[in-house]
Amino acid sequence: MKSICVFCGSSLGALAAYGEAARRTGQVIAESGYRLVYGGAKVGLMGVVADAALAAGGEVIGVLPQALQEKELGHEGLTEFYLVGSMHERKAKMADLSDGFIALPGGVGTLEEIFEVWTWGQLGYHAKPCGFLNIEGYYDHLTAFLDHQTTEGFTKKEMRDMVRITETPEEMLEFFRNYQAPTTPKWINRSDT
After folding, report:
1. Residues 6+ apart with CB under 8 A from 22
2. Residue 42 DSSP class
3. Domains of the chain listed by start with CATH number
4. pTM of full prediction above 0.85
5. What is the pLDDT of residues 13-61, one digit of tens each?
6. Which residues contact 71 (CB under 8 A, 6 or more apart)?
């Protein structure tokens, strides 16, 4: 594992703990010898995680769509910066550059990004771990819903277990280091075929 992708808000959120978690995540990624891959902006939690990784001596790779360059204010101090044509290209580039994916608190875009790479993992397009950093209970309701999906038969336990919810970046990186992708295909033993 060489690079960790972090999806997170382009705003700071309501609690100071979110910014502190972003700072700690960037720092831990860099101090653990990984490169940070993220959305390329200098605003919100995105800027905090990037600045913290850089301050800890880490390499930071940003990927930003051209249309968001002015709105999200691309970070100018990164190790590498990719300006791409669309959100689809952004997600594909970030996925290609990364060996694991962490969702910090964020909005709909953060959820869409982590759910897409998780889905790709379920389909066998990659064998990379995904996780949510549950800061101040931010993802408690989502965790309950994901468990409900499994109970209701819409997500297999093996697929649900692909994603870890932790409270610290250290716990997340430990999960990533020991991650084993499911070996059972998503569509085996379907009862509705």
Report:
1. 6, 8, 45, 48, 49, 52, 104
2. S
3. 3-177 (3.40.50.450)
4. yes
5. 999 999 999 999 999 999 999 999 999 999 999 999 999 999 999 999 9
6. none
